[in-house]
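[recover] target loaded
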């Protein structure tokens, strides 16, 4: 059975922080591959600055297209919105029985995990791999037997910072994969 980490997110846009963490997981754990699961919307986030799903999917695809360890997954585009992780996991398990899925999330998400719909089902049935985030404590679930902390590099890069920098006309060259930066420039996104 193939062990696949699911890295859920808006990826608005995907940046080098996401890729560094993804690579760390694949290279430093027993995970065989990693899927970037693009969320069309996040019930816990504001939508004003969210680029449309197709553009975020495309940027993620061009960021990883040369790396066979990674895949972009659009399963949540086909599910009712808002998308809930528990439903996505049930659907993926049904569609890909040859995969053992686990969730990769930041420590900030673990702190708020109890707010997720059916979080008990997720905790009971899936391993959760957690990477550290600056200023986070992990919350009450950090000692749960299905929660594992990994010693990934602590990244202080956020998509919000990147979007704000683009809006302010600042250089962001080293924060994004080159193809993603070129797409953002060509399409003129995040400028307003």
């Amino acid at each position: 059975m193939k062990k696949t980490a699911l890295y859920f997110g808006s990826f608005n846009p995907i940046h080098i922080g996401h890729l560094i963490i993804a690579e760390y997981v694949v290279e430093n754990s027993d995970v065989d591959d990693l899927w970037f699961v693009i969320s069309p919307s996040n019930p816990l986030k504001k939508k004003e600055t969210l680029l449309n799903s197709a553009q975020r999917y495309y940027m993620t695809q061009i960021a990883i297209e040369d790396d066979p360890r990674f895949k972009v997954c659009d399963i949540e585009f086909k599910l009712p919105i808002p998308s809930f992780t528990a439903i996505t996991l049930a659907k993926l398990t049904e569609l890909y029985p040859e995969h053992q899925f686990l969730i990769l999330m930041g420590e900030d998400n673990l702190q708020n995990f109890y707010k997720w719909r059916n979080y008990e089902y997720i905790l009971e049935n899936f391993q959760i791999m957690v990477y550290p985030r600056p200023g986070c404590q992990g919350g009450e679930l950090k000692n749960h037997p299905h929660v594992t902390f990994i010693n990934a590099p602590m990244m202080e890069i956020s998509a919000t910072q990147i979007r704000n920098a683009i809006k302010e006309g600042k250089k962001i060259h080293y924060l994004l994969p080159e193809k993603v930066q070129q797409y953002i420039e060509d399409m003129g996104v995040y400028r307003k």
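[recover] notes: The chain has one domain: 2-154.
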